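hey so i finally got around to running the thing on that chain from the lab meeting. sorry it took forever, my laptop kept dying and i had to restart like 3 times. anyway pasting the input first so we r on the same page abt which one it is
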Amino acid sequence: MLLGAYYRAFTDLVRNTDSAIDGMDYIMANLHRVDWQKTQETIDNLKSIYRKTWTFKNAISCLDEQVTRINNNEYEKTFNAVLITRIFIWIIENGKINFSQPQMNAAKQALLPLWEQSCFEMRYVYPNR
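ok and heres what got predicted. didnt touch it at all, straight out
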């Protein structure tokens, strides 16, 4: 599955982010939404209860769980993929990542098949969108 390689490569890429990243509530709320498919009200309640225990280490642990989960499933809900992509984008845009060139190359290689599939779908499957 294409998403498995994507999740794994980007989790490895963001693993070396400075733990003092802003927006931990955003990251963890989205991870909890993926895990439990909770409503916004439930997520807001979880924020107030668990905010003190939300660390970047916990976020990486949750992302590792998502990598394991996607490798054991044949399909992924679009909603989950969007939430996880939002998390990766947030971390990349707002964190200080200490990455290596091989990690960047692996992330790029994981994105290429997804990009090609998207281009194919836009051209041949949904040409009038």
